[in-house]
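Quick log. Single chain, no ligands specified.
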Amino acid sequence: MNIAEETGSKIRHYRKIKQMTVEQLATAIRKSKSCVSKYESGQITIDVVTLYEIAQALDVKVTQLLHLPLSPHPGAPSGSVPSFFVGLSHLYMYYYDGRKNRLTRCVVDIFSEVEPGVYQVQMYMNVDDYSHYQQCENLYDGVLTHYDALSTLIMKNQSMEMDNYQVGIPSPYMNAPTKWALAFGISSRPLMPTSTKVLLSKTVQKETPEFEKELRLSKEDIRLMKQYNMLTVL
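-> predicted structure:
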């Protein structure tokens, strides 16, 4: 899929979410129905002004419609990139949602370094299909920052500004296929702050009953919560 087709696919996805017809979108941006259909199929490359008009009509951020190239973390000689993140351009994140009694899938794309040790990221939350993971329930923008003993993801929900989602990743200098982390954000169902243990993985995980059980709070998790009077991930 080329860039025009990918952008068109995203436009079609968000138009359907908004329950808009091709004709309604065409009217909103003052284009013909056939022109919008060609945008969505990738037959016509969209100019910048029109792309902003489409984003406004769909009530999404322009970045939700863009193709952003990934930039894998290099193996920096200075050691500024912790071992767990070396060579990674995206991560898979999982947590168990007790309200729905099922696990939630997320994908974190890692883009360019904006300053030493700080990388631009986007997180796609509640993904159904990994082959089209950008078509998700919630999109977050933010940064991944590396420190000596901790890496942090700090992101903002593009649809709910009060939701500043933060993930603390302990001991990133220790390389492993997966790593436990602690996430904090704002739930919209119901509206309340939440703190969740999450699993970060370099590869897609098999969603077995055993894997789902690992994502739930264990007796050891509860014991440590009582001991420290706080939710921790070690």
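Residues 3-17 form the longest helix (15 residues).
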